[in-house]
Amino acid sequence: MTTIAIIGAGLIGRSWALVFARAGLPVQVWDANPTVLDRLADDIGAMIRDAGGDAGIAALVTPCATLAKALDGADWVQENGPEDAAIKRALFADLDRLAAPGTILASSSSALMPSVWSEGLAGAARCLVAHPVNPPHLVPIVELCPSAQTAPEVMDRAEALFRQVGQVPARLTREIDGFVLNRLQAVLLAESLSLVERGVIDVQGLDDTIRHGLGRRWAFMGPLETILLNAPGGVPDYVRRYGPMLARLTDDAARGEAFTEAAGQVVADAFPNTEIRARQDWRDRELAALDRHLRSRSERKD
Amino acid sequence: MTTIAIIGAGLIGRSWALVFARAGLPVQVWDANPTVLDRLADDIGAMIRDAGGDAGIAALVTPCATLAKALDGADWVQENGPEDAAIKRALFADLDRLAAPGTILASSSSALMPSVWSEGLAGAARCLVAHPVNPPHLVPIVELCPSAQTAPEVMDRAEALFRQVGQVPARLTREIDGFVLNRLQAVLLAESLSLVERGVIDVQGLDDTIRHGLGRRWAFMGPLETILLNAPGGVPDYVRRYGPMLARLTDDAARGEAFTEAAGQVVADAFPNTEIRARQDWRDRELAALDRHLRSRSERKD
């Protein structure tokens, strides 16, 4: 039985707790803020209710008053602290000192490559990034990013654990800024912001182009299988035929300068009366419903 | 009652015929290849069966032996010819000469801006691009792109028609190379191909990152609503906080040189035993199932 330590129990940490507990694994939770721990049972209970899960799952989640208690007997640490290199370095120094030798130390960081906070640790070989999409109990992808020091068997165990609990691990071979997911999101956002700021299309039209267009395929195929199926002559032939056009569009696309506050204001102005909290709840209900839909399809056939 | 002329009855033209006919509109179809017209009833029938539609729809689709016959009484022309500027110019010169004055002339072109083939025509004001995602009867987005000559009321009528038949029109304010959808696809593909060719991640992992990650949101929200909901302090604040990271990733991203045959080969090698035709049928079944799922959700609440 794999025991999980969740370090940092904000939204992402609590969602991780649910991922592991619903797969039957005991979860020990620590947070620097005692109030978060006091409310943990209520917060996890509400999350389970919203996700339509079995209330009994909550019994597998134990709040721990100290970091050492949370690490006691843990096989896997999932850290969810602030995205600050100095804080993360200090926290992982503690984790590496306190955790038993066989324990794997994973960070949910989206912004800091594993070398940034694990370099120089005695246990650098057992450190990796396991980056989720928020919230992980509703979106299955987990990016696994090693540093140059991370041991291959640590990556193997990470992949096996996430498959065991029903997530989808995507394994990088080496570290790269932004990992994969945010690199893909960044280029799409840059061009999106540029198009709406220049007034080529409005925000609703831009979102519709993805939501009712490209996103329809990308929800069950990736972008590469998408081009495979549009390439009756094979993908190299596809690249020969459409590559020059796609290259021209890419070379003409927006770059980093697209991320302006003015562009952000154009987006904000398009959603004048949105209650963010209520709309986040709507998003999470839709993510859950879509996950059920996609799982029912893939169980049927693939 | 709006009468539709479909000019060119390959896969996209037949799918368009189904879109309009299932909304109850009479559809007149012409193709330069008589064999295509001979098989039209069978092909449309098979499409309706696969999509689970009412077989009676087919009665609204009439093959026409000549271009003039297809245009007779038509209010809307949807052209689906080859993506060749000279061919398209000649075809639209014919359409503009033969169609009644009030008829709107739309091209499904993904590659040619409307000015390229409509400039100089007496009826340039009634010409636009109405670019679908293949196949339009399963993916609702339609990009509406005007040239500088296109009349605003033509755009209004185009938008109204596509809403009437259950598609989702996304209206551009002016023409731009690649319109919006392919610009967004191009930047995401460039970075995807670069990451797999450089071996940062394998093809399956790259596709999983979208399919089980970003694509889960983009199937029912756009990328801009996605950031709105991740920005409790407002989108300008989000851009202030995450903009520098996203800008760095964008500036570091692949450009047009990523579209190499070698990258195409990496993708092809990842799908060694895929029967393309069978997998396209699978894709279309999944698109139909996803469309039913999303429509059932949006009817419930939004």
TrEMBL record, chains A, B:
InterPro entries: 3-OHacyl-CoA_DH, 3-OHacyl-CoA_DH_NAD-bd, 3HC_DH_C, 6-PGluconate_DH-like_C_sf, 6PGD_dom2, NAD(P)-bd_dom_sf. This is L-gulonate 3-dehydrogenase. GO terms for molecular function: (3S)-3-hydroxyacyl-CoA dehydrogenase (NAD+) activity. Residues 3-172 form the 3-hydroxyacyl-CoA dehydrogenase NAD binding domain. The lineage of its organism: Bacteria, Pseudomonadati, Pseudomonadota, Alphaproteobacteria, Rhodobacterales. Belongs to the 3-hydroxyacyl-CoA dehydrogenase family. Residues 178-238 form the 3-hydroxyacyl-CoA dehydrogenase C-terminal domain. Its EC number is 1.1.1.45. It is found in: Cytoplasm. Homodimer. The keyword Transmembrane helix does not apply. PANTHER family: 3-HYDROXYACYL-COA DEHYDROGENASE FAMILY PROTEIN, LAMBDA-CRYSTALLIN HOMOLOG. The keyword DNA repair does not apply. Pfam families: 3HCDH (PF00725), 3HCDH_N (PF02737). Keywords: Cytoplasm, NAD, Oxidoreductase, Phosphoprotein. Its main location: cytoplasm.
